[in-house]
C-alpha cells in the first residue's frame, strides 16, 4: 500500500512538471514496470506535444499497447488502426496490423451474441494474411480464422435447430441447406444436408394436400444431391428412409389423383 501511495504521489508530481522529457522518461519507466494505467495517463498528455517529432512513433506505439495490456481491446484496436493510418511506412506496420486484427478476435463474443466483431476479425485476419503471406504470424492467423468460423457455424446451426424444434420446417430446411453451403468443408456438412432432408419431409407431410406432392419432390431432389455429394456418409441410410417415404407418398398421391379423375 505504501508503495502504491508513493507511486501515485510521484505520478502527480511528474504530471505537474513542465519538463516534457522527464515526463516521457517517467512514462517509459512505468511502461517497462508494467504499470500501464500510469504510463497511459502520461502518454495521453504527451501525444499532441510530441506529434510530428521523431519520438512520436515510439510514444504512440507504447500508448496503444497500454490499452491492449489493460485488456481494453476496443480502445487498443482503435489506436492500432490510428497508428497504421498515421505511420503506414513504419517498420512496425506488420506487427500493428496483426494486433489490430487480434483485438477484433479478443472482442469476439460468446456464440449467442451478435457476431459483428467475429466477422470483422475474420476479415482483418484475412487481410493481414494477404498482405503478409510470409509472416511468422500467418499460421496463427489461419488458426484464429478457423476458430472464428467454427463460432459462426455454431451460431447458424443453433438458429436452424431452433426453427426445427419450433416446427418451422420450411425455415429449418432452408437454414440447414444454407449451413451446408456456407461451410462445405465442415465435418458436419453431411449432417446439415440430412437435417434439411428431414425438415423438408416434415414440411411436406404437414402441408395442405394440394401442395404435398411438389414438396415431397423437393425431399427426393435433396436426397439425390445428398447421395451424390456424400456417397460414404454414415447418415446415408437414414436419409434414404426419407427418400423412400417421400417417393411412396408421391406415388400414393398420384394414385389418388388418378382415382378421382376416373370417378369424374
Identify low-pLDDT runs: none
The overall pLDDT, averaged over residues, is: 93
Number of strands: 0
In the CATH classification, which architecture of one domain applies? Alpha Horseshoe
Alpha carbon gap, first and last residue: 98 Å
The third-level CATH topology of one domain is Serine Threonine Protein Phosphatase 5, Tetratricopeptide repeat
Query: Percent of residues in helical segments?
Result: over 70%
CATH class descriptor name of one domain: Mainly Alpha
Structural class by sheet pairing and helices: mainly alpha
What is the fourth-level CATH superfamily of one domain? Tetratricopeptide repeat domain
Rg measurement, Å: 30 Å
Give a short account of the largest sheet: none
Beta-strand residue fraction: under 5%
DSSP summary: helix tally: 12
- Strand-and-helix sequence, N→C? HHHHHHHHHHHH
Cα shape: rod-shaped
Amino acid at each position: 500500500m505504501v508503495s502504491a501511495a508513493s507511486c501515485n504521489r510521484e505520478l502527480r508530481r511528474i504530471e505537474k512538471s513542465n519538463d516534457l522529457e522527464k515526463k516521457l522518461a517517467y512514462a517509459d519507466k512505468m511502461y517497462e514496470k508494467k504499470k500501464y494505467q500510469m504510463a497511459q495517463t502520461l502518454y495521453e498528455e504527451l501525444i499532441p506535444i510530441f506529434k510530428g517529432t521523431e519520438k512520436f512513433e515510439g510514444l504512440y506505439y507504447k500508448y496503444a499497447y497500454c490499452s491492449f495490456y489493460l485488456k481494453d481491446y476496443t480502445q487498443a484496436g482503435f489506436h492500432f488502426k490510428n497508428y497504421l493510418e498515421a505511420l503506414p511506412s513504419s517498420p512496425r506496420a506488420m506487427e500493428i496490423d496483426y494486433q489490430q486484427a487480434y483485438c477484433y478476435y479478443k472482442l469476439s463474443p460468446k456464440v449467442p451474441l451478435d457476431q459483428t466483431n467475429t466477422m470483422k476479425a475474420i476479415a482483418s485476419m484475412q487481410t493481414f494474411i494477404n498482405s503478409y503471406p510470409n509472416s511468422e504470424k500467418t499460421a496463427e492467423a489461419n488458426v484464429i480464422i478457423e476458430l472464428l468460423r467454427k463460432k459462426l457455424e455454431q451460431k447458424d446451426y443453433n438458429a436452424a435447430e431452433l426453427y426445427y424444434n419450433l416446427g418451422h420446417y420450411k425455415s429449418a430446411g432452408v437454414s440447414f441447406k444454407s449451413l451446408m453451403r456456407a461451410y462445405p468443408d465442415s465435418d458436419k456438412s453431411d449432417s446439415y444436408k440430412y437435417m434439411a432432408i428431414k425438415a423438408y419431409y416434415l414440411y411436406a407431410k404437414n402441408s395442405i394436400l394440394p401442395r404435398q406432392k411438389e414438396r415431397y419432390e423437393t425431399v427426393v431432389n435433396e436426397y439425390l444431391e445428398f447421395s451424390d455429394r456424400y456417397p460414404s456418409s454414415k447418415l446415408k441410410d437414414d436419409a434414404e428412409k426419407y427418400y423412400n417415404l417421400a417417393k411412396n407418398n408421391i406415388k400414393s398421391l398420384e394414385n389418388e389423383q388418378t382415382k378421382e379423375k376416373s370417378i369424374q
